[in-house]
């Protein structure tokens, strides 16, 4: 199995550091984009901001820290997260639509500071908003993929990453990837493989292949052994998907782009 970049990752509270050392030594994980998640749950405790940053510092260049952005807090919150050490931002369950103009100062500041934003789009686990430690809203309706188009158009130097494929609005994903050079997609969660098979060879308006904007992710928790095994299994399955299912298609040759190279190229844009 070849090394992979996990473009949507979380960290568990109470990290098993021995395991993290093993992961670093394994050579399997090239990089993980680590999203701080302000979520309170009975069965899973997510790491807080400090723990996410500590992990990034402990393994330089391996874990890239993304801070959760409360969009209602305005531009100063972006500056706070940047100064604290976060490379990127993660948005989820906003109280208003992502493209609400009251959030534009946040996007302007992120663009100015060169911080990419990964937006959760589409389907979300039932009741997630009630588990958040900050205000959120129920259902996926304020997180439609095409809301990112508005933001990408208004802030052309801001890097926007679709977290997941935006199911059930997957056709909007196609339009966003085709038309906006600053939108990419972290493919994980509820994956529509049929859509992938039909679109990996599609070409964007700027001439790039979709496979250059679609990136592997797991959306699991680092720091816990069962989750790490799931990441290995998911990466192995995805590699096989390209090699075996894609054997008779051009996109079968895009395995390295999907698993690592597209994410690596994007990360250079935000200084990693
Ligand atoms: Zn996630």
Structure, explained:
This protein has 272 residues and is an alpha/beta fold. The chain has one domain (4-269): TIM Barrel (Alpha-Beta Barrel), CATH 3.20.20.140. It is built from 10 helices and 9 strands. A 9-stranded parallel β-sheet has the order 8-7-6-5-4-3-2-1-9. Helix 7 (170-179) links the parallel strand 6 and strand 7. The longest helix has 20 residues, at 225-244. The two termini are 24 Å apart. The mean pLDDT is 95. The chain binds zinc ion. Residues 8, 10, 35, 219 line the site of zinc ion.
Query: What is the strand arrangement across the widest sheet?
Result: 8-7-6-5-4-3-2-1-9
Distance between the termini: 24 Å
Q: Could you give the order of the helices and strands?
A: EHEHEHEHEHHEHEHEEHH
- Biggest β-sheet, characterized? 9 strands, parallel
Count of β-strands: 9
CATH architecture: Alpha-Beta Barrel
User: In the residues, how many domains can be counted?
Assistant: 1
Radius of gyration (CA) equals: 17 Å
* Proportion of residues in extended strands: 15-25%
Which regions have little confidence, pLDDT < 50, spanning 5+ residues? none
If you consult CATH, what is the topology? TIM Barrel
Bound molecules: zinc ion
Oligomer: single chain
Overall CATH class: Alpha Beta
Helix content: 25-40%
């Amino acid at each position: 199995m070849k090394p992979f970049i996990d473009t949507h990752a979380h960290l568990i509270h109470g990290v098993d550091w021995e395991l993290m050392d093993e992961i670093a030594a394994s050579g399997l994980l090239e990089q993980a984009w680590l999203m701080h998640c302000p979520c309170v749950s009975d069965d899973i405790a997510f790491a807080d901001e400090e723990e996410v940053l500590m992990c990034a510092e402990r393994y330089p260049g391996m874990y890239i820290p993304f801070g959760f952005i409360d969009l209602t807090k305005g531009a100063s919150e972006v500056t706070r997260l940047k100064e604290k050490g976060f490379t990127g931002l993660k948005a989820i369950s906003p109280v208003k639509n992502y493209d609400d103009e009251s959030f534009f100062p946040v996007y302007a500041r992120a663009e100015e500071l060169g911080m990419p934003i990964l937006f959760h789009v589409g389907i979300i686990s039932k009741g997630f908003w009630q588990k958040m430690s900050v205000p959120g809203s129920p259902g996926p309706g304020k997180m439609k993929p095409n809301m990112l188009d508005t933001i990408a158009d208004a802030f052309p130097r801001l890097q926007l990453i679709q977290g997941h494929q935006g199911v059930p609005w997957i056709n909007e994903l196609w339009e966003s990837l085709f038309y906006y050079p600053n939108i990419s997609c972290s493919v994980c969660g509820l994956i529509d493989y049929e859509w992938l098979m039909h679109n990996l060879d599609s070409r964007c308006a700027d001439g790039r292949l979709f496979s250059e904007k679609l990136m592997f992710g797991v959306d699991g928790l680092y720091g816990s052994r069962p989750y790490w095994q799931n990441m290995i299994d998911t990466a192995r399955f995805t590699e096989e998907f390209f090699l075996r299912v894609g054997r008779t298609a051009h996109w079968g040759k895009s395995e390295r782009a999907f698993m690592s190279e597209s994410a690596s190229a994007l990360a250079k844009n935000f200084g990693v």
